[in-house]
């Protein structure tokens, strides 16, 4: 008899929980739709007033004011200009973090919108325009909307929500620390300890209403490398009397590509080695003394990453020596692999499908772009996905990080709904 009562109680609880979840879902939908115009206005304000990495002073003030007005526990000046807020639910439970990046890029905007950025600044001794050419303004506005919704649902939160507004995702200025690495160093995932983290990125090439995701490696580890080649200067008419660092550079570039084409197991994951800049020489008839090359390595597999860097370290000085010169190579890690925790994806995918519609949630291939959200994922399980921002009427959308980059603002509403429901479902399922 006791067993029957226990089973009956179990099923009643299950039905009640299901009805409660449906009710929360409806409330989130209603609140998100009511907030949509406000989220768009926030986004336009950030868009018109963009700030570069580690210089997001006014952006941070606006974020902090909003979170304080919601009654949250707010900490400013985290990792220089970051803002972190804590929302405690009425019931005990785990801690989930939600992250939005807040910095803009040194790109002069050409998109024809009434809230176009006309901001200019000096970046690396060059006067440049500043714009949100990657959509971080939308991420910030979306998370502010999520914060407002969840602050009204404290009674339905089992645990704690930590809102992380992160500066310098695009990388701190030379000689400075910043971004996710510095936030972690300063303890953003502690006090209280974060159990899981969610993040999204709006995508100009994905149609509004759709979401793309990939379990496991979804974005690449990014390394910046600098190669310095030393030769022997001589007259351009007598190359045999010197050592040509430009020739050596060409041979090194050619050799590096064989690491990808002949040594990397590309059936596992993609990998890229790109030399993006070469500096050498001052005059047409002088073979210079030195050359410098700057480039990037992109990998999606930890073992391939180790192999490629090892072979580059071996190959660069050897090729230079073969042609009578010397060469050194140095690496700077910009991001790790953005790795979506397999169990977390499996657990939370039904929530995303329930909000967006199963047919609109698309399993995608990895990309060779990089994201410093990856550093958070090295510490705690994380799930990072892509939100559609392309108008259905747009045939070919301009790429991110370009002057013509454009986002259809109607795509942000889905981001607010999904991030809000993900948070509640994660905490309330524990």
H and E string: HHEEEEEHEHEEEEEHEEEHEEHEHEH
Oligomer: single chain
- What share of residues are in beta strands? 25-35%
Q: How are the strands of the largest sheet arranged?
A: 1-2-6-3-7-18-8-17
Given the helix and strand composition, which structural class is it?
alpha+beta
Helix content: 25-40%
Low-pLDDT windows of residues: none
The number of strands is 18
- Number of separate helices: 9
Structural Rg:
25 Å
Q: Report, as a whole number of angstroms, the end-to-end distance.
A: 29 Å
Instruction: Describe the global form.
Output: elongated
Mean pLDDT: 94
Attribute tags:
9 helices, 38% helix, single chain, four-stranded antiparallel β-sheet, alpha+beta, 430 residues
What does this structure look like?
This protein is α+β, with helices and mostly antiparallel strands. 38% of the residues lie in helices and 28% in strands. It is built from nine helices and 18 strands. The chain has helices at 2-48, 57-69, 136-151, 179-185, 245-263, 302-322, 342-356, 373-379, 412-428; strands at residues 73-78, 82-88, 91-101, 120-123, 126-129, 158-166, 196-207, 211-213, 216-219, 221-230, 234-235, 271-280, 286-287, 290-299, 326-335, 338-340, 361-363, 382-390. The strands form five sheets. It has an eight-stranded mixed sheet, sandwiched between helices. Strands 12-14-10-15 form a four-stranded antiparallel sheet. Strands 4-5 form a two-stranded antiparallel sheet. Helix 1 packs across helix 3 and helix 7 packs across helix 9 (412-428). The protein is elongated and about 90 Å long. The protein starts with a helix and ends with a helix.
């Amino acid at each position: 008899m006791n067993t029957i009562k226990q089973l009956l109680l179990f099923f009643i609880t299950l039905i009640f929980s299901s009805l409660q979840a449906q009710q929360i879902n409806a409330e989130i939908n209603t609140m998100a739709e009511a907030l949509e115009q406000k989220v768009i206005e926030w986004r336009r304000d950030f868009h018109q007033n963009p700030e570069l990495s580690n210089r997001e002073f006014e952006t941070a003030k606006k974020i902090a004011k909003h979170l304080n007005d919601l009654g949250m526990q707010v900490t400013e000046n985290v990792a220089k200009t970051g803002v972190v807020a804590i929302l405690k639910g009425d019931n005990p439970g785990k801690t989930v973090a939600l992250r939005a990046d807040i910095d803009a890029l040194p790109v002069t905007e050409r998109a024809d919108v009434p809230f176009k950025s006309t901001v200019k600044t000096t970046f690396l001794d060059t006067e440049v325009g500043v714009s949100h050419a990657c959509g971080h303004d939308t991420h910030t506005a979306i998370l502010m909307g999520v914060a407002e919704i969840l602050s009204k649902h404290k009674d339905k939160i089992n645990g704690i929500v930590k809102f992380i507004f992160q500066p310098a995702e695009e990388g701190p200025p030379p000689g400075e620390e910043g971004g996710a690495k510095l936030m972690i160093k300063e303890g953003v995932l502690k006090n209280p300890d974060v159990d899981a983290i969610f993040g999204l990125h709006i995508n100009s090439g994905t149609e509004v209403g759709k979401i793309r995701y990939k379990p496991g490696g979804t974005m690449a580890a990014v390394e910046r490398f600098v190669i310095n080649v030393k030769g022997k200067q001589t007259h351009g008419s007598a190359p045999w009397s010197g050592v040509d660092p430009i020739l050596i550079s060409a041979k090194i570039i050619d050799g590096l590509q064989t690491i990808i084409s002949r040594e990397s197991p590309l059936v596992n994951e993609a990998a890229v080695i790109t030399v993006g800049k070469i500096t050498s020489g001052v005059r047409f008839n002088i073979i210079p003394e030195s050359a410098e090359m700057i480039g990037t390595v992109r990998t999606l597999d930890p073992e391939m990453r180790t192999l490629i860097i090892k072979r580059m370290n071996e190959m660069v000085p050897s090729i230079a020596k073969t042609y009578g010169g010397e060469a050194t190579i140095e690496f700077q890690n910009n991001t790790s692999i953005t790795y979506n925790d397999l169990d977390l994806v499996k657990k939370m995918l039904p929530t995303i499908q329930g909000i967006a519609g199963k047919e609109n949630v698309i399993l995608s291939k990895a990309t060779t772009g990089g994201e410093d959200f990856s550093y958070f994922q090295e510490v705690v399980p994380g799930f990072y996905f892509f939100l559609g921002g392309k108008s259905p009427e747009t045939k070919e959308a301009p790429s991110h990080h370009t002057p013509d980059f454009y986002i259809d603002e109607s795509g942000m509403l889905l981001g607010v709904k999904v991030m809000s429901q993900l948070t509640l479902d994660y905490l309330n399922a524990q």
